[in-house]
Design a protein that fits this description.
Helix 2 packs across helix 3 and helix 5 crosses helix 6. The chain has a six-stranded antiparallel beta barrel with strand order 2-3-7-6-5-8. Helices cover about 35% and strands about 30% of the residues. It has three domains: about 80 residues, Elongation Factor Tu (Ef-tu), domain 3 (Beta Barrel), CATH 2.40.30; about 150 residues, Threonyl-tRNA Synthetase, Chain A, domain 2 (2-Layer Sandwich), CATH 3.30.980; about 110 residues, Diaminopimelate Epimerase, Chain A, domain 1 (Roll). The chain is elongated and about 95 Å long. A hairpin with a 3-residue loop joins strand 12 and strand 13. It has eight helices and 21 strands. The longest helix is centred in the last third of the chain and has 36 residues. It is an alpha+beta fold.
Length: about 400
């Protein structure tokens, strides 16, 4: 029995959305499938995702190519008939065609302008990237590359596809060698690019409309280029326009001065935060002096025990730092954040290894924590657990 063969209608007309086909094989298991004698559904491959749509009432949720057959994975079995009508999701097909054709043009531009070939391509419903070797291109290099691509878009050059026999493939200036045996399908952007490709493409570069590069990313020794074409690029432009318009209104400045206004605000914020830290540190120093003056003590040690107002965990850390910079101090501080948090610390000159009492701390019901020889910290379930912790600390200091 001959293996099924599916004719690829999307190769002859990528703009077609409806078709009728004969059902060659079907399965009605937990994940129904169907193989047709011809199809408009592009299977996943070559960096491009599969099409979606419907076969009759069944939703096509995945499309894969196995040999010469294209397998449609469905959300329900097909009806028991020899023929079926199919409809692809045109908005998705159009989006993928714009991105894929734009990728060919962008890859050609990187070669022409920077002599950097594409070594990877990935397309999803919300992301499109190519990988090129070497470090991040400079802003000027990106500008030149996009200018090349946009000039080709403006020239409205035809995008053609055709089969080439292996014996003739050497006459085609392919951007990279083909990876298939037998006849090679070539996608050509007139006067610009020739690529071996089985994907779906727009009819001319004008349909790509626009290419933008919103982000570059280092990937080891290579660069990942995030790009947007056509309607994706326009949506990105609208989003960025809304943000910049809002910033101009908020900052009461023009577009050219946004960066300067934001830099000025960042500088002001940095100065304000610095002043706040200095004020907080002065307050922590003053509070540490007050607590030490009223602390209990024995054998030259001073034990500070203090509970801070709710939510002041940052000040608790600063206060502990101020206390332990003083000589002969052991301190236990706690705060509700809203959960109870506690910290125990000691001055550097105090000969007490706090790490040695961790087993006893963890044996107290409702306490969790750990640390090192100079600082312990953790949480408590209630005030009773904190009281038991304070009693343990006094017993260790014999206070």
């Amino acid at each position: 029995m001959n293996a099924p063969v599916s004719r690829k209608l999307y190769w002859s007309d990528a703009y077609r959305t409806r078709f009728t086909a004969r059902v060659l094989e079907r399965s009605d298991g937990p994940r129904p499938t169907a193989i047709l004698n011809r199809t408009l559904f592009y299977p996943e491959g070559g960096g491009q995702p599969h099409d979606t749509g419907r076969l009759g009432e069944a939703r096509v949720v995945d499309v894969q190519s196995v040999g010469d057959a294209i397998i449609h994975h469905l959300d329900r079995p097909l009806p028991d008939s020899d023929e079926i009508d199919g409809t692809i999701d045109w908005r998705q097909r159009w989006d993928y065609m714009q991105q894929h054709s734009g990728q060919h043009l962008l890859s050609a531009a990187f070669v022409d302008v920077l002599d950097r070939p594409t070594i990877g391509f990935h397309l999803t419903s919300d992301s499109a990237t190519i990988d090129i070797p070497g470090p991040l291109p400079s802003p000027d290099e990106i500008t030149q590359t996009l200018a090349f691509a946009q000039a080709v878009i403006a020239a409205d050059r035809r995008i053609l596809s055709y089969q080439v026999n292996p014996a003739d493939i050497g006459s085609i200036p392919l951007r990279k060698p083909p990876t298939v045996d037998g006849p090679v399908r070539v996608v050509e952007i007139e006067e610009t690019d020739w690529s071996a490709c089985g994907g779906t493409h727009v009819r001319s570069t004008a349909a790509i409309a626009l290419i933008v590069i919103p982000r570059l990313e280092r990937r080891g020794n290579d660069t990942r280029v995030h790009f947007l074409c056509g309607e994706r690029a326009m949506a990105d432009y609208k989003d960025r326009l809304a943000v910049t318009t809002g910033l101009m209104a908020t900052l009461t400045t023009g577009l050219d001065d946004i960066a300067l206004a934001v830099a000025r605000l960042q500088s002001q914020l940095s100065e304000s935060q610095k002043a706040q830290r200095e004020a907080t540190n002065r307050l922590a120093d003053a509070e540490s002096e007050r607590l030490i003056a009223t602390a209990s003590g024995q054998n030259g040690l001073r034990l500070v025990q203090h509970q801070l107002p709710e939510g002041d965990a940052d000040f608790m850390r600063r206060l502990m730092s101020a206390l332990t910079q003083k000589p002969d101090v052991v301190a236990m501080l706690s705060v509700a954040t809203p959960a109870l948090r506690w910290v125990i610390g000691r001055s550097g000159d105090v000969e007490l290894n706090l790490q040695s009492i961790i087993p006893a701390v963890r044996a107290i019901p409702g306490l969790q924590g750990g640390g090192n020889a100079e600082l312990l910290q953790g949480g408590a379930s209630d005030e009773t657990a904190l009281t038991a912790l304070a009693d343990l600390l006094r017993s260790q200091l014999s206070i």
